[in-house]
Predict the 3D structure of the following.
Amino acid sequence: MTTSESCSDCSVRDQALCGSLTNHELESLNRLGRRRHVAKGETLAWAGDDNLVCGNLLSGVLKLSSATTDGREQIVGLLYPADFVGRPFADQVDYDCTALTDAELCVFPREPFERALADHVQMERLLLQRVLAALGDARGRIVSLGRGSASGKVAGFLLDLADRAGTSGCRAMPGGPLTFDLPLSRGEMADVLGLTIETVSRQMTAMKTAGIISLPGGRAVTILDRQALEARLD
Amino acid sequence: MTTSESCSDCSVRDQALCGSLTNHELESLNRLGRRRHVAKGETLAWAGDDNLVCGNLLSGVLKLSSATTDGREQIVGLLYPADFVGRPFADQVDYDCTALTDAELCVFPREPFERALADHVQMERLLLQRVLAALGDARGRIVSLGRGSASGKVAGFLLDLADRAGTSGCRAMPGGPLTFDLPLSRGEMADVLGLTIETVSRQMTAMKTAGIISLPGGRAVTILDRQALEARLD
DNA sequence: AACCGCTTTTGATTGGGATCAAATGCACTT
DNA sequence: AAGTGCATTTGATCCCAATCAAAAGCGGTT
């Protein structure tokens, strides 16, 4: 995989915010931004830092998380390719942003980017849509955290990931078993779902025992019975 | 209290989105919208409905909630005066929207409002800011739901309300005890915090017994010891 | 292969909040 | 004042997930 600095071969060119720009506009934005590679486990920004950059995620998965007083953390959001990263108009970073996998971003200094936003109404509109989507995602998490049982939380999370993996995941036949890699460790799943590592692990093995999923090894998961997973949601 | 239909005497004129408009622009928006009174307990919109309106909340408190399969509900957000109500660019309503107190809104048909947004860049910018704030609020709720103990959740919620009540609440002397009315029942607090009515009630009486708050009657609460409340957060 | 560090799994026990149940309080009607 | 319908409080018990503890798996290094 080459890592050219040009937008024209950007892997998320037409899904990310920039998709709304003409080639000419894109060129000026291109001069503003630069590619940045982030290694798995590396933290791009810490909560409380000066809020200097934002950008688009090109590949990989990031987590947004908050450390809690008891030494653990709560993950408040996951970011996937083409998602917007960062928080315009804020002076400080509000959540730690860490790479769950190796990741590639296209980053812009925040203030110049905000000016560019003002100049490109279409882009601001798309950003609004994206923030609305993030809000929807966050509220869905609230429902899951507030009311779900442990098995419902894990089942729901696997379904989310399965939908997300839809294209990149691997499935033998349409409607058949779907296999994909979890981008998170058990501990990170626990931090998303408000559970402990042990509970997540137990729920996973319970589903394996029930024949709903299988765990081929590594971080791979195969969803054998999607309906059974959906039945566990409540 | 008079309920004139004019923007010029709107109680949230300079805090809501419309604050960015010139008097002339405001007039055209004024023709688009209308005042609507909602009685306590009344539901403005149900999840799944066609998404027909949005607007600004002028007075009162609204809740956004999702019914869960077990017959309860999870509240995903509370809306206060000057907050924006509704979800532009979506075909369907995503959460039930219900008045916790009698409330007054300024509502616009969604599609004309979206066109007005496009015409008034400044207003779109303010909406973006508001949605970003709502996202921050939602993520704060995620952290509270995911990791907090029951006493931490209740303490945090009381602190939120106290800050919100700041001006409207009543306090004998600066830094002294603050008294305000809860806009929610015990059951609704439980639905915000992901707890049961009984647990919320027990936490409240525990704090009363500890001398941290007092419950003068009705839905009033007095915060006697803010620091003790903050100490309970984790 | 053997060792190391780390993640995951599995087991035993505990505890905090849910649940079930009943009493009390409070606003409103008659 | 008595009665009605709710909301809230209080009490007793139970259960799910947390906690504590240890074993098993797994990748990387020498």
